User: Which sequence fits this backbone?
C-alpha cells in the first residue's frame, strides 16, 4: 500500500510546487512556471487517485485509515500528532479538491497568461492546494485548524492579488477579518472540546461524543456549546449569515481563484467540518436547529440579492452563498450525506460557472457588467454551452447533477420541517430565475457592447477543455444517486454511510426511504422542479419576451428593488454598527488615550522624574570639602542615633 | 588607676575638636592636621578598650592605623605642596574645581 502509507505525498507535492516557484521562479519564463505548478498538482491528483484505488481495497475494519507520521505537540496530557487519515468522506473531498483544483490550474495557465504576477499567482494557488489537502486529510482538529487558517491566508493573498487596486486590498482585508471572527469561534470550540474529551483526535472525540447522552432538546449543554462554536467557525469560512459579507467582495480576486477557493473548495470547508463533526451535532438538537435555520435563511436571503445584481461574478457569488446555505440546511436536518453530495455537485457546476464567467470576461476584454454584454451565444459557443449545462444543473433541471442533490436536501428538509423545506423550494425558484437571467443577459438578446472596441473571441484550448470536462461532470455528477428514484440504491449515500451512520437516525431514515413509483413522479415534478420552471419562465418572460419589463418592474417596486440592489444594506449596517465604532475606539481610546496617554505618558514620566531629580541633587555636589564633611558627619550622626535607638 | 571613662571622654573631646576644626578651618594644612587629630583620638579609644578588656587586638589595630596615617600624611602633604605650587593658595574655599 505505498500511497496510503506515504499519504503525506498528496499535500506535499503542491507545497513543493509553491516553494519552487516562489523561491526560484523569479526569472523563469511563464512556461516553466506553469509546468512546475501543473506537474505538482497533476502528480498530487494522480497520487490521490491511486490512494482512492488502494482505499477501495481496504476491508471495513481498516477504515478510517489513519497514519501517524510524527508527534507534533506533546504538552502534559495533551498530544497532537501529525497524522493523516482517509475515510469515505475524505475520499469525496480529496477527489473534488485535487480534481477540480487540477482543472482550474490548467484553466489558469490560459486565463492568467498576460498577467505580470504569473509566478506569484501559481505559487499562491499551489500553496492553497497544500493547505486545503491538509485540512481534509487531517486526523485531528488541530491539524485541520492549521489547514483551515492556511486556506484563509491564501484566500486573503489571492483576493488581494491585484494589490495596486484599493478595492482589492480592501476586499482581502475584509475576507481576512470576517474569517477571524469565525476562526475565533472555532478555536473556542476546540478548547471546549479539549476540556471535555481530553483530546482533539477524531478517533477519540467523535466516538465519545456519539456515546454521550444527547443534550435534551431546548437545553444548552456542553455538546451544544461545542457544536455552536464550531458552527461559528463554519459560518465564517462558508459565508453564512451573519458572516457572509466577505464572499461577494472576494470576487475582486482573479476569476480562477473565485472558482477554486470561493466556490468549489475552501468555502465548503465549513460544510465538511460540520459533516465531519456530525457525531457532536447529532447529540445537540439546538445546534442542529440553528444550523438548519441559518442555512435556510442564508439560502433565500442571498438568492434574493442575486436577483438584481448586474456584475456577472457578483451574481455567482451570491449564488454560492445561497447554495452553501442549502448545504447547511441539509446538515441541520441531519442529512449530512445530502449536504456533502450537494457540496460535490456544487463544486462541479459552480466551479464551471465561475470558469465560464471568466471565459466571458476574457472574451469581453475585462468587462464584468452584464448590462454591457448580450448576444454572445454565437461568438463564444463553447463557453455558452458549458455555462448552460452548469445553469441547468444549478437550477435543478431533472437529470442534471444539481437536481439530485438539491432534491435530496429539500426532501429531507420537508421531512423534518415543512417550513424550512418550502423556503428552500422558493430559494430554488429564485436560483433558477437569477441564473437564467444571467444566461439571457449575457448570451441572448441585443449586443449591448461596442463592437469596434471589444473584440469578442473564444478562449484558448487550455481554458475551454477544463470547461468541457466540468460540464460533463455537472451533468453526470449526480447519477450515482439516480437509482434511488426508481427504488434502487443511492450509491453516493451508500458509499458515505459507514462514516455518517454513527447515529441510528440516518440508517432508519434510509430504511424508510424506499420510494414507490408515485414518489418518483413526485420527485420529478416536485416542488423544486416546479419552482425551477417558474423561475425559468419568469426570466424568459422578463429578459427575452419583453426586455422593457424589468425596468418597469424595478420602477413600480422601487423600494424593494433598491433594498435588494443595495444588498439589504448589510455592509452599511456593519460599517455603522461595528466598523466605525471600532475605528473610533481604536483611534480615540486605544491610540490617543491608552497608547499615547497612558503608556507613552508612563515612560516619559519616569524619564522626566529622573531628570528633574538629578537636576536637583546635582546642586549638592558643590566641590566644597567642608560641606561634604558636614554631610558625612550628619550622616554618621543620623545612623548612629538610629542604631542606638533600635538597639536601645 | 585612672578609670576607663576618663580616657574615653578625652578621646571623644579630641575627636570632636578634630571634627570642628575640619569643618571650620580654611587652611588645608590645618584641615589635614585635624584629620590626624581624629585618627589619634580613635587610636586612643582602641588602646583604652585594649587595656580594659585585657586583649591585644586593639593595640594591633593602632599600629595599623599609625602606619596608614603615616602613608596618608606623605601622600596628603605632597598633594598640598602641589596645590600650593599651582594655585598659590591653601584656602579650601578656592579648591572646588571637582564640582559638577
Assistant:
Amino acid at each position: 500500500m505505498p500511497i496510503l502509507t506515504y499519504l503525506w505525498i498528496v499535500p506535499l507535492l503542491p507545497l513543493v510546487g509553491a516553494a519552487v516557484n516562489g523561491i526560484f521562479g523569479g526569472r523563469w519564463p511563464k512556461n516553466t512556471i506553469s509546468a512546475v505548478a501543473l506537474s505538482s498538482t497533476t502528480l498530487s491528483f494522480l497520487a490521490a487517485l491511486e490512494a482512492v484505488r488502494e482505499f477501495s481495497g481496504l476491508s471495513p475494519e481498516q477504515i478510517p485509515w489513519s497514519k501517524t507520521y510524527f508527534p507534533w505537540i506533546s504538552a502534559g496530557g495533551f498530544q497532537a500528532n501529525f497524522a493523516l487519515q482517509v475515510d469515505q468522506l475524505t475520499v469525496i473531498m480529496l477527489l473534488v479538491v485535487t480534481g477540480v483544483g487540477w482543472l482550474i490550474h490548467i484553466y489558469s495557465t490560459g486565463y492568467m497568461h498576460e498577467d505580470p504576477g504569473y509566478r506569484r499567482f501559481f505559487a499562491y494557488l499551489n500553496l492553497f492546494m497544500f493547505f486545503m489537502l491538509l485540512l481534509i486529510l487531517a486526523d485531528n482538529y488541530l491539524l485541520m485548524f492549521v489547514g483551515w487558517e492556511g486556506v484563509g491566508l491564501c484566500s486573503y493573498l489571492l483576493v488581494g492579488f491585484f494589490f495596486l487596486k484599493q478595492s482589492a486590498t480592501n476586499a482581502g482585508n475584509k475576507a481576512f477579518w470576517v474569517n477571524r471572527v469565525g476562526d475565533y469561534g472555532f478555536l473556542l470550540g476546540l478548547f471546549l472540546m479539549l476540556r471535555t474529551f481530553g483530546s482533539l483526535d477524531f478517533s477519540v472525540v467523535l466516538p465519545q461524543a456519539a456515546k454521550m447522552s444527547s443534550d435534551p432538546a431546548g437545553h444548552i449543554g456542553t455538546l451544544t456549546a461545542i457544536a455552536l462554536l464550531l458552527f461559528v467557525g463554519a459560518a465564517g469560512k462558508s459565508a453564512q449569515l451573519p458572516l457572509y459579507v466577505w464572499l461577494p467582495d472576494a470576487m475582486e480576486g482573479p476569476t480562477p481563484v473565485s472558482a477554486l477557493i470561493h466556490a468549489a473548495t475552501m468555502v465548503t470547508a465549513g460544510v465538511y467540518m460540520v459533516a465531519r463533526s456530525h457525531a457532536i451535532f447529532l447529540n445537540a438538537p439546538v445546534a442542529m436547529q440553528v444550523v438548519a435555520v441559518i442555512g435556510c435563511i442564508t439560502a433565500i436571503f442571498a438568492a434574493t440579492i442575486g436577483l438584481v445584481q448586474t456584475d456577472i461574478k457578483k451574481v455567482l457569488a451570491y449564488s454560492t452563498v445561497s447554495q452553501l446555505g442549502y448545504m447547511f440546511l441539509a446538515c441541520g436536518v441531519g442529512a449530512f450525506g445530502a449536504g456533502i453530495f450537494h457540496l460535490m455537485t456544487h463544486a462541479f457546476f459552480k466551479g464551471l460557472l465561475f470558469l465560464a464567467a471568466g471565459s466571458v470576461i476574457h472574451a469581453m476584454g475585462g468587462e464584468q457588467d452584464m448590462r454591457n454584454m448580450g448576444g454572445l451565444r454565437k461568438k463564444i459557443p463553447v463557453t455558452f454551452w458549458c455555462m448552460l449545462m452548469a445553469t441547468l444543473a444549478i437550477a435543478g433541471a431533472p437529470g442534471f447533477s444539481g437536481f439530485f442533490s438539491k432534491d435530496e436536501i429539500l426532501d429531507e428538509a420537508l421531512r423534518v420541517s415543512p417550513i424550512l423545506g418550502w423556503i428552500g423550494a422558493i430559494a430554488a425558484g429564485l436560483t433558477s430565475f437569477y441564473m437564467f437571467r444571467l444566461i439571457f443577459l449575457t448570451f441572448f438578446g441585443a449586443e449591448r457592447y461596442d463592437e469596434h472596441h471589444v473584440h469578442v473571441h473564444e478562449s484558448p484550448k487550455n481554458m475551454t477543455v477544463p470547461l468541457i470536462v466540468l460540464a460533463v461532470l455537472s451533468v453526470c455528477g449526480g447519477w450515482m444517486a439516480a437509482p434511488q428514484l426508481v427504488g434502487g440504491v443511492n450509491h453516493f449515500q451508500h458509499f458515505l454511510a459507514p462514516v455518517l451512520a454513527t447515529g441510528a437516525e440516518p440508517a432508519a431514515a434510509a430504511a424508510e426511504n424506499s420510494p414507490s413509483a408515485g414518489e418518483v413522479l413526485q420527485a420529478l415534478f416536485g416542488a423544486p422542479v416546479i419552482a425551477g420552471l417558474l423561475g425559468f419562465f419568469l426570466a424568459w418572460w422578463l429578459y427575452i419576451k419583453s426586455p422593457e419589463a424589468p425596468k418597469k418592474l424595478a420602477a413600480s417596486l422601487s423600494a424593494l428593488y433598491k433594498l435588494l440592489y443595495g444588498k439589504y444594506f448589510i455592509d452599511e449596517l456593519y460599517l455603522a454598527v461595528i466598523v466605525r465604532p471600532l475605528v473610533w475606539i481604536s483611534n480615540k481610546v486605544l491610540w490617543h488615550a491608552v497608547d499615547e496617554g497612558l503608556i507613552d505618558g508612563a515612560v516619559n514620566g519616569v524619564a522626566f522624574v529622573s531628570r528633574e531629580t538629578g537636576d536637583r541633587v546635582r546642586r549638592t555636589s558643590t566641590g566644597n570639602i567642608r560641606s561634604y564633611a558636614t554631610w558625612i558627619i550628619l550622616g554618621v550622626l543620623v545612623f548612629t542615633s538610629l542604631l542606638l535607638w533600635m538597639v536601645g | 588607676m585612672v578609670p576607663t571613662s576618663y580616657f574615653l571622654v578625652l578621646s571623644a573631646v579630641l575627636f570632636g575638636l578634630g571634627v570642628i576644626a575640619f569643618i571650620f578651618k580654611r587652611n588645608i594644612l590645618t584641615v589635614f592636621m585635624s584629620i590626624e587629630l581624629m585618627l589619634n583620638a580613635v587610636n586612643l579609644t582602641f588602646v583604652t578598650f585594649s587595656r580594659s578588656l585585657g586583649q591585644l587586638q586593639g593595640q594591633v589595630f593602632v599600629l595599623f592605623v599609625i602606619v596608614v596615617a603615616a602613608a596618608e600624611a606623605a601622600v596628603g602633604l605632597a598633594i598640598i605642596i602641589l596645590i600650593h605650587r599651582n594655585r598659590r593658595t591653601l584656602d579650601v574655599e578656592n579648591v572646588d574645581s571637582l564640582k559638577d
In short: The beta strands of chain A are 65-75, 78-86. The interface with chain B takes residues 618, 621-626, 629-630, 633 of chain A (CB under 8 Å).
